[in-house]
């Protein structure tokens, strides 16, 4: 089969239904695949859908561990491997982390054999690039329908994806040089980077599972909007569920966000351009006030002025900035330096401070150099709520608990202004399951 499978949209829909099978399709019929005015193919509602309703469930083509987990997980069942000092690598010498149960099962044997044949140069180390490559190697083992689906997905061309394969090749003494196989890997890397979902597959935090990276043929057709009408969660490592965050009318395109909801417009634009190769022109992106949230805002650089500055043009990545009070205009280069300063100062603290120092820093220091609406400060507050809801031994003062409640109320108000509806972030903040 040639690399890249050209298929009409109706035939792609048939193939996806074949992949999902009748049992899964039974309660999975609120959607259809059509050409999208946003880009290529998209998913559309065939009936009115309520907020909170499940729109669709999708079954992965392949899954694998992510490279960024702070704790090692089994690369087959994704359960966290408790004691990192214990021998957690595959007993047969492929170098991948594996739990006791999966090391005795058969699911890992084919990829294990390949890894051993390619000879990892550092077999006693767990190398992040190789963890990320597991999901790509598994594309070799797809059945006919699943392979056709993989090759029918959009796969953006990017020189960094070639680097990704090169870096993997350098980790092995005997990596294949066969052109067909390398092209298949290259294509699979591009398809993953364009379409894959990453997330925790332990929604209830009961199974002790880590983060997974997976490619879903139907959910890969979801286009992006910065204020989306749908969100997702992993029901298991192989199952992705898409839910409506607000009521969706029959005929409306179902869209998710590829970025974090609380990022500023410039941050989202840069991320989408660099990683997904498009410029978003949704209503949120063209509103300089960012739905009245002023997530980009920085203090005016004019001496004596206490106003806030926002980017004035919405189409460029290097806009001029204008003060809403004194109307001074500053070039992006100057404001970008100032934004970087705020970002680095706050992020350095996030990584190094205790929770109580972080609260003091947010309340007493940040207002001197960063408007409260700026997305970096918003993310810092989110981080405090997250750490406080996870802390099991620390005892907080009444004052600190009040701060947490205030941050929560501010964040919920922000999500309301953005029209984010019943999104996963709102649920996590409300239920303190961040
Ligand atoms: C996950 S795919 C979405 C499905 C894709 N439309 C297709 O036909 O397979 C992601 C790609 O779709 C395109 N895309 C998604 N949302 C878009 C939007 N709002 N505006 C322009 N292009 C978009 C971009 O090229 C992006 O890299």
From TrEMBL:
Source organism superkingdom: Eukaryota
Q: Give the transmembrane ranges.
A: none
- The protein's organism comes out as Musca domestica
Please name the InterPro entries in this protein's record: SET_dom (IPR001214), SET_dom_sf (IPR046341), SET_SmydA-8 (IPR053010)
What this protein is called in its record is: SET domain-containing protein SmydA-8 isoform X3
Q: Which residues form the SET domain?
A: 29-259
Gene name, per UniProt, is LOC101893262
SMART domains linked: SET
């Amino acid at each position: 089969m040639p690399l890249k499978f050209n298929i009409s949209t109706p035939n792609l829909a048939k193939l996806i239904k074949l992949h999902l099978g009748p049992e899964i399709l039974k309660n999975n019929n609120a959607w259809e695949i059509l050409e999208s005015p946003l880009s290529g193919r998209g998913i559309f509602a065939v009936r009115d859908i309520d907020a909170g309703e499940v729109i669709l469930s999708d079954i992965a083509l392949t899954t694998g561990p992510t490279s960024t987990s702070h704790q090692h997980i089994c690369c087959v069942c994704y359960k966290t491997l408790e004691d990192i000092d214990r021998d957690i690598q595959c007993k047969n010498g492929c170098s991948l982390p594996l739990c006791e149960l999966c090391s005795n099962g058969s699911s890992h044997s084919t990829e294990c054999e390949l890894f051993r044949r390619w000879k990892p140069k550092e077999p006693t180390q767990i190398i992040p690039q190789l963890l990320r490559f597991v999901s790509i190697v598994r594309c070799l083992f797809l059945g006919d329908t699943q392979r056709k689906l993989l090759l029918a997905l959009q796969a953006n061309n990017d020189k960094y994806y070639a680097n990704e394969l090169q870096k993997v090749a350098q980790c092995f003494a005997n990596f294949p040089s066969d052109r067909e196989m390398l092209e298949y890997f290259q294509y699979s890397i591009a398809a993953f980077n364009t379409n894959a979902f990453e997330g925790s597959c332990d929604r209830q935090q009961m199974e002790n599972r880590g983060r997974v990276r997976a490619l879903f043929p139907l959910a890969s057709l979801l286009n992006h909007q910065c204020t989306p009408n749908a969100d997702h969660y992993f029901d298991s490592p192989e199952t992705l569920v898409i839910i409506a965050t607000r009521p969706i009318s029959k005929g409306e395109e179902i869209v998710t966000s590829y970025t974090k909801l609380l990022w500023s417009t410039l941050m989202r634009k840069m991320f989408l351009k660099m990683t997904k190769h498009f410029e978003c022109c949704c209503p949120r992106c063209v509103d300089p006030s960012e739905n009245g949230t002023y997530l980009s805002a920085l203090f005016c650089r004019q001496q004596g002025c206490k106003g806030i500055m926002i980017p004035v043009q919405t189409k460029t990545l290097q806009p001029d900035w204008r003060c809403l009070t004194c109307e001074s205009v500053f070039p992006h280069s100057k404001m970008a330096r100032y934004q970087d300063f705020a970002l680095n100062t706050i992020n350095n603290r996030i990584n190094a401070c205790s929770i109580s120092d972080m609260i003091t820093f947010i309340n007493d220091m940040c207002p001197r150099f960063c408007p409260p609406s700026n997305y970096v400060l918003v993310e810092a507050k989110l981080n405090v709520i997250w750490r406080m809801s996870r802390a099991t031994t620390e005892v907080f003062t009444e004052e600190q608990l009040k701060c947490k409640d205030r941050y929560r109320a501010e964040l919920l108000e922000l999500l309301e202004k953005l029209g984010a509806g019943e999104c996963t972030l709102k649920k996590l903040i409300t239920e303190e399951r961040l």
